[in-house]
Specification:
Number of strands: 0
Structural class: mainly alpha
Number of helices: 2
Oligomer: single chain
Largest sheet: none
Order of helices and strands: HH
Helix content: over 70%
Strand content: under 5%
Shape: elongated
Radius of gyration: 14 Å
Length: 57
């Protein structure tokens, strides 16, 4: 899966979490927000690694 599809998937999970929050499904929306945040950070760190930038490790 390339980076564009990963970004689309992360955005879709975020929007779904937002809609769940608006409809009152707070537990599900919290899990979706956490999933999108973790996926976004993983993708960002992988992109930085490919570019040759160092991480905090």
């Amino acid at each position: 899966m390339n980076d564009f599809y990963k970004d689309i998937l992360t955005g879709t999970v975020f929007i779904t979490g937002l809609l769940g929050f608006i409809s009152g499904e707070f537990i599900i929306s919290s899990a979706l927000f956490a999933t999108s945040a973790i996926a976004s950070n993983i993708n960002l760190n992988r992109k930085r690694g490919k570019a040759g930038q160092l991480s905090c490790e």
